[in-house]
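User: Can you recover a sequence for this backbone? Please restate the input before giving your answer.

Assistant: Of course. Working from this structure:
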């Protein structure tokens, strides 16, 4: 096969529009409004939870603006990995790619574990493991068959899951104070641990938005990256801010703070407290669909990061193969399946979630630094941007400060996990530097960027 034919064979189909980008971003994240976020109540109290929600919302608004500006001019699969490839070099790109893979593989396993936990709540005799395995196998098959159908399905199941939150909201008659079943003053517990509690709650406040940055991983498959990526991502962020606030409001008004801070499925528990069978059924369906949409998007994002690393020779090139018919990175998709199954099999939901969050936070630190370098290498006017992040460098500074604050709060509660995660990435860096780097084709690594962009300022 000629070089040009080989390159063409490794390119993915350009079939996605803004709707699919919204479905990918919101689909991955929405499950965080059905579970996980409520641990902010245990850490910081009810008011600490909503404060953490909006502080982390500011972090993600900054991240999305940075992510969208750089991503709109890099129409390649890999998202933040592809950005690091052009801005930071092979070692940093390898680490960021690995962090992305584990962020989404772990989140995928957590989604499947929650599906199993909900089924067990219906009948304790139900064995959840077969449902975990079946869910991951089904979604992997969908991703194997093609990204267009996969994300079109994600759009519909994400939209349905999002609507169920508002079904629960309106069932409370919050708009009629004399008839509402919400009791915020009786069920919330304020700020029992002060601002230290808010700092600790930031770790789980991330669960409201974790994964929205994954929209950039589909850049290569957009019909128009400069249009689809900014529109789909920014609308998705607004969707999540509204959904997160409504979720906190409803759950805090229906479930006592002590119970809410320990629940595995807070929205479903809030539905149970209404004693309305129709609402309970709707929320059960919404929770299952949210988990499936999230796992579906995670399979998509993790495989694109792994595929991109392989295509750039940072890992063995066997994973860079594209299916001749479906135009999907099928080997990367299939390879990551048993890894996700293994973590799902452990049943350790909190450990799985913690490693996913840590991996994401490390990527966010790199993103803050890359924004400074991107604006220095390619000042305004030097290249065409599909989106320009306003108020630079304020978003990058906010992103770095809030990410470090969240890591600090996470260290207080999970210091062993944080140190173990950092050790894992340090050892992976050693392996790459001492063993794998000699196989990297450094000329081809940056060739695409050299052809697309002018020479960077100062280089």
């Amino acid at each position: 096969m000629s070089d040009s034919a080989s390159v063409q064979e490794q390119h993915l189909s350009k079939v996605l529009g803004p709707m699919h980008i919204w479905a990918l971003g919101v689909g991955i994240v929405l499950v965080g409004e059905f579970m996980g976020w409520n641990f902010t109540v245990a850490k910081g109290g009810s008011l600490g939870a909503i404060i953490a929600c909006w502080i982390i919302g500011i972090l993600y608004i900054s991240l999305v603006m940075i992510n969208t500006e750089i991503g709109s001019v890099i129409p390649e699969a890999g998202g933040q990995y592809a950005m690091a490839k052009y801005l930071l070099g092979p070692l940093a790109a390898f680490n960021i790619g690995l962090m992305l893979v584990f962020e989404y593989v772990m989140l995928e396993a957590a989604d499947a574990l929650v599906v199993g936990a909900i089924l067990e709540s219906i009948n304790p005799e139900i064995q959840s493991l077969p449902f975990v395995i079946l869910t991951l196998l089904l979604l992997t098959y969908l991703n194997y068959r093609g990204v267009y159908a996969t994300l079109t399905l994600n759009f519909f199941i994400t939209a349905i899951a999002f609507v169920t939150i508002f079904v629960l909201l309106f069932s409370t008659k919050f708009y009629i104070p004399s008839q509402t079943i919400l009791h915020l003053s009786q069920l919330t517990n304020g700020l029992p641990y002060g601002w230290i509690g808010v700092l600790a709650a930031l770790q789980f406040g991330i669960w409201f938005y974790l994964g929205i940055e994954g929209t950039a991983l589909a850049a290569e498959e957009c019909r128009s990256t400069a249009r689809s990526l900014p529109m789909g991502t920014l609308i998705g962020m607004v969707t999540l801010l509204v959904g997160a606030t409504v979720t906190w409001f409803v759950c805090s008004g229906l479930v006592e703070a002590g119970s809410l801070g320990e629940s595995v499925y807070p929205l479903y528990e809030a539905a149970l407290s209404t004693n309305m069978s129709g609402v309970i059924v709707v929320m059960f369906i919404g929770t299952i669909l949210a988990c499936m949409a999230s796992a579906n998007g995670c399979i998509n994002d993790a495989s694109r990061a792994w595929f991109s690393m392989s295509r750039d020779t940072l890992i063995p090139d066997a994973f860079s193969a594209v299916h001749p018919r479906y135009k999907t990175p099928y080997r990367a998709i299939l390879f990551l399946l048993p890894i996700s199954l293994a973590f799902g099999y452990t049943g350790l939901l909190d450990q799985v979630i913690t490693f996913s969050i840590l991996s994401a936070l490390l990527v966010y630190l790199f993103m803050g630094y890359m924004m400074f370098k991107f604006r220095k290498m390619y000042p305004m006017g030097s290249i065409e941007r599909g989106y320009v992040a306003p108020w630079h460098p304020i978003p990058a500074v906010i992103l770095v400060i809030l990410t470090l604050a969240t890591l600090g709060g996470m260290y207080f509660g999970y210091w062993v996990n944080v140190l173990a995660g950092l050790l894992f990435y340090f050892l992976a860096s050693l392996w790459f530097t001492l063993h794998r780097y000699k196989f990297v084709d450094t000329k081809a690594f940056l060739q695409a960027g050299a052809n697309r962009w002018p020479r960077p300022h100062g280089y």
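That completes the design. The CA atoms of residues 41 and 261 lie 5 Å apart.
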